[in-house]
Amino acid sequence: MMAFISRLKQNRALLLLMVALVVAITAMTSVDFFVDRVDRQLKRQGTALMAADLVIQNGAEFDQSWSDKAIELGLKVSRQVSFPSVLFHNDKPQLVQVKAVDAEYPLRGDFRADSIDGGSFTRGPQTRQAFVDAILKSKFFIPGREQEVSIPLGNLQLDLRGIVQEEPDRGGNLFQLAPRLMISYDDLHDSGLLGPASRARYRFLVAGEMAAVESFRNWAVSQLPVGARIIDVKNARPELRTALDRGHRFLSLATLCASLLAGIAILLATRRYVNLAIDAAAIMRTIGMTSRQVMNRHIIEILQVLVFGTLIGIFLGYIGQNVLSSLVGNWFGDSLPQPGFRPVLIGLFYGAVLLPGFSLPVLLRIRKVSPLRVLRRDIDPPDASSLFVWGLAVLSFAVLVLWQVQDYKLAVALMLALLSVMLVSVGIGRLFILLLKPSRNKSSGLGLGLAALSRHASLTQWQLAGFSVGITLLLILGVVRIDLINTWTTSLSPTAPNHFLINIQPHEQQQLQQWFEENNVINSGMYASARGRLTHIDGKLVKADEFQTDRGRRLASREFSLGFSDQLQSDNRVVAGDQWPPPQEGFTVEQDLAKHLGLKPGSTMTFDIAGQQVTAPVISLRSISWDSFNVNFFVQGSETMMLDLPVAYLNSIYLDEDPAGVMKKLATDYPAVSILDLRPLLKQIRDIMDKGSLAIETVFMFTLLAAALVTLGAVLISREERAQEIAVLRTLGASRKQVLLGVLAEFGLMGFISGVVAASLASITGYLVAIRLFGLAPVFNPWLWMTGLGIGIVTLLIVGYFSTRSLLNKPPLSVINAGV
Amino acid sequence: MGIDLHVNSAEAVALLGASGSGKSTLLGLLAGLDDPTSGTAFLLQQNLSDISEEQRSRLRLGRVGFVFQSFQLIPGMTALENVILPLQLAGVDKATEQARQLLEDVGLGRRMTHLPRQLSGGEQQRVAIARAFAGEPEVLFADEPTGNLDAETGEQIIQLLFDLRDRCNTALLMVTHDDQLAKRCDRIYRLQGGRLSETAQEQS
Fold this sequence. Notes:
The structure holds two protein chains of two kinds.
Chain A: H1 2-10, H2 12-50, E1 54-58, H3 64-72, E2 76-89, E3 92-101, E4 112-115, E5 120-121, E6 129-133, H4 134-140, E7 150-153, E8 156-166, E9 180-184, H5 188-191, E10 201-207, H6 210-223, E11 229-231, H7 238-287, H8 291-328, H9 342-363, H10 386-405, H11 408-436, H12 445-455, H13 457-491, E12 499-504, H14 506-518, E13 522-523, E14 527-537, E15 540-541, H15 550-557, E16 559-564, E17 573-577, E18 587-590, H16 591-597, E19 604-609, E20 612-623, E21 635-637, E22 648-654, H17 662-669, E23 674-677, H18 679-717, H19 719-731, H20 736-772, H21 783-808, H22 812-818
Parallel strand pairs in A: 3-9, 6-8, 16-21, 18-20
Antiparallel strand pairs in A: 1-10, 1-11, 2-3, 2-10, 4-5, 4-8, 6-9, 7-8, 12-22, 12-23, 13-22, 14-15, 14-16, 14-19, 14-22, 17-20, 18-21, 19-20
Helix pairs in contact in A: 1-2, 2-7, 2-8, 2-9, 2-18, 7-8, 7-9, 7-10, 7-13, 7-18, 8-9, 8-18, 9-10, 10-11, 11-13, 11-20, 12-20, 13-18, 13-20, 13-21, 15-16, 19-21, 19-22, 20-21
Chain B: E1 12-17, H1 23-30, E2 42-43, E3 46-47, H2 53-60, E4 64-68, H3 79-89, H4 95-105, H5 121-132, E5 139-143, H6 151-168, E6 171-175, H7 179-183, E7 187-192, E8 195-199
Parallel strand pairs in B: 1-6, 1-7, 4-5, 5-6
Antiparallel strand pairs in B: 2-3, 7-8
Helix pairs in contact in B: 3-4, 3-5, 4-5, 5-6
């Protein structure tokens, strides 16, 4: 161990090898530890968030067979219903979301309500009792006099008994944001509120042994009524999932970039290591060691690097994930569960693939060292075949990519992109060297520099490849990162709508718009909408069970909210078909929905809207950013189509604090309009994005670190040659200034080339990645070029200066004699 | 063709010649470091053309020593480790003790833990000599052992080399430019235009 440490001190190449490995493993494991913890937490919370292990949701009541089957399997069962309703209190209407729960609720997670008498409940209300949430309480009830309150609901008068504090399965669905009124399942029928056509959502909850839940799910799939759906941990909390998936993808990408850079640093460091080892190997061979023995000595040394580097990396990764976890704070509840052992194994596997993959072919050169080298220094062992070097590097990296993204198509795309970055940078490097040949003979500093570049053509090529790939990955990641964060934050600008107004009647529309102006309320404008059922596609009757996907079946059987406007929301993008508005009447459809329903531009859709048949062609498909919180419709028709239809209007407004009581005034002036307050949800999402951005910035640091290592590696491999050359130049009478100018010209030019290569490749790749991986609209970025060239030139000038300064100050002869 | 050289055990032979005349190449061939395009070389009664590179390494192990103009110590190893290496390879018990003794013998008892770059040229060559004699070799190949040293240090090094050679009864083949040095050997050969000729040893 001590011997190994002193070897690291002596041999910078070995140290660089070790540090590169540590950085890669640290990046990898800290992200993996972190994701592991979040996953555990999400799974744990997932069931709690549903109040069950599995939920079946339907528009009609579940019959007895469901309970029988579940009980037969030994599962616990709970039923609930939720539906919107309007309460009148002091003659003011208030939209509420009624939720009726039985005595078993919740099967998972915690329910808590404060009793108005003091004390608390952990179960839902009993018959003829009601619980309300804090919002409803503050709107309707006078403080201190809650005991006297009786709530009229349909045929019933309910006693207010509790204030809901924790409701596990409340969820983030927009239209469930109306205040909560919770009643007993037993009161449901007596209330008389639920007729056959009511918009109630029935839920059947089960919990129990995993195997039993699984067999119940299988049974449920075969019994599933049309329009019903199964909800499990995977599709609970979709808004959180989407944000996390994006974040996770970015973290993976950043990790992979850091690994690739570390891999290149390992490759460069190995070259240097081997160059140093060759002389020693020749001596050992002369003394009588077999090539196998010589090789084994080095293999053991590299194995030590592998073991110590990986362990240190895993240890630092563990610390790193704690940093990440503390950055994201309590997104996921109070505390994350401790990470499992899995990331440790992953770290070991990762190191075992990365280090040999990037170092072995070069390392094997040592085996071919001839003992004759002790007499004739010019006898180099044959260079490792580039095909072998790059082939194995690419292969081992491919293993890591595939394993990280778990999606072979994406893995192939990523690999191709990265490979082309490598190939193009090497190619352009070669081209530049060729172009520079004529200027070799100039004696100026610049000439010296250019000459140096083309003289070490093969070395220069390695350095250029290293630098270019480094800067390219930094740029790509930088751009995607900024795009990602921008898209997150601009989609949620500070004045993003935070209240939805629904159910605005046509005759109120004009007045209300005027009312907004009078009261200085920022609003998104009026959106006409009507509810309709999809009856025909291309003249063929729509039958839900004929669709391939679950979502297709569900979509086919549910009611659509159709929008009517000749304009598209700013976050919409036409991805197929003609621009909007079209010359003729038609629909524009969200692309994902179109996929599930098998719609293309040119298909015709027929909707039944309040008894009227409306038929029109699909003009275009659109993408929508749902996280923009704009008013958006899956299906939007031309404005003229709504003329004879029973439409209502939607609007969204921004209203933060409301000192003037605009909200109250609005409610008084327009009692029929329902107001949904999005602020709690927006706050939660903003919080996630802020902390997510922070986590992303942190992981990005690993990539920067790895890029710095590549630079170091690239400089290190040429240090010996450079030192010799400078010594000779100085001996021959070149001034310090001339030599320095030469070196700066060399490095500056290399920086320029790398910058150009990197900026052009990053533009292309960034564009593709943004679209493919994150579903973000690409933005042309002129800064990319400035940043790429800036980073390239400035970094390399600095590196060139500092790596040369120490050599310039040494007496030339000491450099020559020492062989550095 | 033109080269016919036989070195007996315990005999010292000097090989003189101008730069580029092929002295080092010949030394490399005889030590089995290189393959001849024609002709045969025997080392320790073994025809080197009959055995592989690996077998030649094995043959050298513990029986052949080298001293070079540029010392050729392993840069990352201390003086002691450099001397231990061949002993360890030959599977000698108490390799460390022997190596220490050898370094004491060459006058470097106090410099054992130094790295080559921390030693002067003369000291480095002493380490190289200690290493060369570590296994009490039957043959020692020396390639201009004083070429990088000043006259006085060179003289000391040569004295050391010959003392140890006498002690171990080692055959020596030494490439050199130095006529005076050559005269200390039993026989002197001169390599010129690809031909090897023996020079009569003047009795001093």
